[in-house]
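INFO worker-7 received task bundle
INFO bundle size: 2
INFO processing item 0
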Amino acid sequence: MRETEQLSALIGNIYDAALDPTSWVDVLERAARFVGGPAASLYYKDAARRADLVAYQFGLNPRYVQLYAEKYVKLDPTTTGYFFADIEQPTATADVMPYGEFLETRFYKEWGRPQGLVDTVNAVLERSGITAACFVVFRHERDGIVDEETKRRMRLLVPHVRRAALIGKTLDLKKAETDTFADTLDAISAGMFLVDATGRIMHANIAGHATLAQADVLRVIGGKLAANDADSDQALAEIFANAEGGDAAIGIKGVALPLVGRTGNHYVAHVLPLTAGRRRRAGTAYRASAAMFVRKAVLDVPSAPWVIAKAYKLTPTELRVLLAVVEVGGVPEVAEALGIAETTVKTHLGHVYEKTGAKRQADLVKLVAGFSSQLG
């Protein structure tokens, strides 16, 4: 199958998973093969607590998944780097730390190498405070480490995985049967609108009608859905028109469209095409080409580690060493906790002292505590 055909079919499966979460495992299997690896996961990561929750995964040994959650997530040297990567930007191990240094960590020797895993390509889908939702494809030694072709294929998928994951989070449903799509979605708190290619409203749920009644961010003009902001209104019109062409036509537009209300309130809209896959039945029943979900945007308060890294231009590894020094103590303890050599810790710690102007470990503790108290 040609790449374009394979990609088109896969994108359709991804959007179906937004309404039927039970299909995510099959989607991840197809995604792993497309990108070039034996396994893939959708997961949520807490950078501060170094905790990990796998939402869906394919291809990994369940025993190692459990070991990761119980022990090795705290030893994973890539956690901080992946967490602070740009949204949707594919990131490999070598983008976070020197690859040779990675091979010397306990994490690789005890968790990655026994499985034959040598690398990952990871993308952040959403970040809020100290947590992030991520999509990752693992690379086996037979695949080699992540190269530009791997990243290129990952870029083709990430916007669509992000859209489906965000819509799935907005719905928070076990399953939405497509033949009772609109009735099922009446119960959700997000405003939902089924529209045709011109933006004409074919159905709105209870929250959608309430949003229109407030007239803060959306309005109806001649039966068509319109945004109060002119630029956003133009963007919506293009998205709705493209949605009629199917999953591939809508592309990356409307993944998370920011909307601003008349009162200054911020909203976010996600648009799901209804002209392909198992969603087609819902679209045909309501003569709609797309479903749009609108909710108020949650204020994204930066976490203390994020602010510290930005303020002092720390690399992901330097930040990990700084936080570890504050949490567990001296160089030997940090080396043990992070699974790296003491000489490596000393090197990164030297850079931290130089960049922050700190002279001793107590100064670093005060620095981190100061940022934490400012953020409440």
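INFO item 0 finished
INFO processing item 1
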Amino acid sequence: MTETDRIFDSGKGTEKRPRYFNESSFDYYNLSARPGFVALRDLIERWYTDFPNDGKKDIRSRLRSNRETDFLSAFFELYLCQICRGSGFDVTIYPGMKQHERRRHPDFLVLRDGEPAFYLEGTLAQEPQQVTAAKRRLGQLEDAINRLHSPDFWLWLEVRGTATANIPVAKFAKRLQNWINSLDADRVTGDVKARGEAGFPTFPAEYGHLTFTITARPKAPDYRGTPNLRPLGAVLPDVLFECDAHDDIRLAVIRKAKRYGDLNLPYIVAINVINEFLDFDDILDGLFGRRTVEVRRGMEGAIHRRLVRAANGAWTAGTRPSNSIVSAALIANNLIPTTVGVETPLLMHNPWARSPFPTSFWRLPQRSVDNENGTILSHAGTQAREIIGIPEGWLNLE
């Protein structure tokens, strides 16, 4: 097997360290010798080998990208291909759509018993770019702290505000290292015994809208001078990021629904929601509209309230159903290489779909809507790890 037949570089997996905060997935997986990440490398290589040949060049370049979005979107496509094949389908990659001048096309045409069954499109739903940028800058700060020489102290980082501008990490790290070198652990320990929390030395700094304080806390004598211990002992953030997972889902469906013409087959949009706080209500809010309270004044001034859904979902915008070209949404939550053994996507059917997708086709768990009374129906399914052949508890990332 040549290097161009592989995703990862052979012979480079020698690092035993944890991943840096701002290190790309590909870079860390490519270098890590930790057993769990070696197993993940092998899994991705196997999936890449099984991927349709017509799509290998494109997906390899994205998997090897330092842009996290490229890596995650390519991995999600590998995953979708495995789910389909494990469910008994055949997969054609990037089917041509000649009626479109720019040759836009869904990711997959999926076949059942040799006949076209449905189209499948994968996409990511992520936080806004400004939030990603702020987290990246904070990650650069945390990585800089962890690269410092601090044999006698743990460094606690307390953050306030948002990193709206780049931090001059090199200059900051030099100042912080000089400060650490000036401290004496035994003296600080004595100050803490005498003064309590006020005895811990602090290093304040401010850049743009981000202010932070680093507190040096002496290590226990047995830990002092121990090699390969990261200095950063704790991060205490005082930052609020809005978690609008429902809006991410809504926009992902709308964006993909408008990309193609009439496909004449069921069309599933698979959305990998990169958000730690997703729940089923977010899915319903994104697809069917947000929950709101309707208030009406009745006879003799009586107030009547009821919970309804606003007409602002991907499938309910306006006075009539919208984006009916999308037959169903397959929702995954933070589906990344380290979660493939535990995450199972949910297929949510569109009750107004132009081309309904049969529930009998799909092996994963599903939800649909009873059109007569509007209730949500659950359809039990198989866990994703069983479909793609991953044993329970297979991954050890220690």
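INFO item 1 finished
INFO post-check item 1: The first helix runs from residue 25 to 31.
INFO post-check item 1: Residues 90 and 111 are 5 Å apart (CA to CA).
INFO worker-7 idle
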